[in-house]
Write a structure and sequence with these properties.
Radius of gyration: 24 Å
CATH class of the largest domain: Alpha Beta
Number of helices: 15
Structural class: alpha/beta
Number of strands: 11
CATH superfamily of the largest domain: NAD(P)-binding Rossmann-like Domain
CATH architecture of the largest domain: 3-Layer(aba) Sandwich
Oligomer: single chain
Largest sheet: 7 strands, parallel
Strand content: 5-15%
Length: about 400
């Protein structure tokens, strides 16, 4: 490896220099070395090779303050990632489907309190599966939090509405980033159901402990319902990501985050009746008297922890090309109906006066063991409890009820 090749490897892949900058550097260094003899030239070349073999994160500057792209910014998780990224000092470009969606974010109390000004801007991406959907969005960004992805819903066309958007949205962001030399890292929201076989999720047969670094072949249909299709979509999107990194060898690295259901205050919700939207319904539904006959896997975590793992994963001190699992309650997860005891203990007045009926149920099926302790160790955090997550939703609900009651009395 000569001076040109060694310098290109070091300065483009390790330090993020542009090709033109490397060419200027090589020209200047060669002029300086010509008069110093072959021995000195060899020592310089050896030193460059040494630096090339270092962990890139040990020599890159901290990324805080850099421009990052957040997709899915108007979702429950995406919004929290925007807030935490701004709090961490990043400049944020939020991808939204319309200008009206941008207004929803700007109207929240957290964003108003941060007063980010030019540190927060928006780009309209109306269709994440369109070819080149993110090509403009990635311009000049150093990192990407790719959170946008379809959730299980009331559809009969699983391929069109769940599987294709999950895969194409992910490959679109990877392809766009590969064309933008400024991108150094992509953090992608995957799922626990991408690293645990669906048959085990719905009916665990063993006490095997799964971790986020597992991988499984693409599942094939037909799928019984949207949740199974969602699991297939997440598995296929994860496999597509790993295949892209393996075959394309991009200059950026990728970190995948594998949460289960996330629960917590959703600041984008401004009406009490809407608090049951999304995955908050599984935890808070029984508190409001909702009865479910369908057992649900108890893999849950506070939405703030999921957002925090995404933002912490941007740090150059964190190795790239790895996967992080998240789960409250340890390896065995949580029991959904613990929500009843929690609200009775934490909000006795609201239970007694009927604001929180605490009369419903959400059965928990046998839990698949999922070990996420490595995430806490590597990132230096401690996951919050089910109680923490539920309390944040409950406080928000009661706050909205009070505001609505005040309006009705005017």
């Amino acid at each position: 490896m000569g001076l040109e090749a060694a310098s290109t490897t070091l300065f483009t892949k390790q330090l993020g220099w542009m090709k033109e900058e490397v060419e200027v550097f090589v020209g200047e260094v060669r002029e300086d070395l010509d008069g110093l003899g072959k021995h000195f030239y060899g020592r310089v070349l050896s030193y460059i090779r040494f630096l090339t073999n270092l962990n890139p994160h040990s020599i890159r500057p901290n990324m805080a303050g850099d421009l990052i792209l957040v997709t899915g910014a108007t979702g429950h998780l995406g919004y929290r990632a925007v807030v935490l990224a701004l709090e961490a000092g990043y400049q944020v470009r939020a991808a939204v489907r319309s200008q009206a969606k941008a207004g929803t974010i700007l109207a929240t109390q957290s964003i108003k309190a941060l007063a980010p000004g030019s540190k927060l801007d928006f780009i309209i991406v109306p269709d994440i599966i369109a070819d080149g959907a993110y090509d403009d969005a990635v311009k000049d960004v150093k990192a990407i939090l790719h959170i946008a992805s379809p959730l299980p819903g009331s559809t009969e066309d699983f391929e069109r509405d769940i599987i294709t958007p999950a895969i194409k949205g992910t490959t679109n962001i990877l392809k766009a980033a590969a064309k933008e030399p400024s991108v150094r890292r992509i953090v992608i929201t995957s799922s626990v159901v991408a690293v645990i076989p669906w048959a085990e999720v719905i009916n665990p047969k063993t006490d095997h402990v799964y971790t986020a670094d597992k991988s499984f072949p693409d599942p094939s249909g037909p799928y019984e319902h949207s949740f199974e299709a969602y699991a297939a979509a997440k598995t296929k999107a994860l496999n597509a990501t790993k295949e892209f990194v393996k075959t394309e060898k991009p200059t950026f690295d990728v970190i995948n985050v594998m949460p289960g259901f996330f629960v917590g205050k959703n600041e984008l919700i401004t009406n009490a009746k809407d608090v049951l939207s999304g995955t908050n319904a599984f935890a808070f539904g029984p508190v409001l008297g909702r009865v479910s006959a369908q057992p649900l896997w108890g893999s849950l975590q506070h939405v703030d922890d999921v957002a925090k793992v995404h933002v912490l994963s941007l740090s150059p001190k964190v190795e790239g090309n790895q996967d992080f699992g998240i789960q409250a309650g340890g390896t065995d997860g949580i029991v959904w109906d613990d929500s009843i005891e929690i609200v009775k203990r934490r909000f006795p007045e609201a239970v007694n006066d009927g604001r929180l009926p605490a009369s419903g149920t959400q059965p928990t099926n046998k839990v698949v063991k999922y070990d996420t302790t490595r995430t806490e160790k590597v990132l230096g955090i401690k996951f919050q409890s089910y109680e923490d997550a539920l309390v944040s939703v409950t406080e928000h609900y009661l706050e909205l009820l009070e505001k609505e009651s005040g309006k009705s009395e005017l």
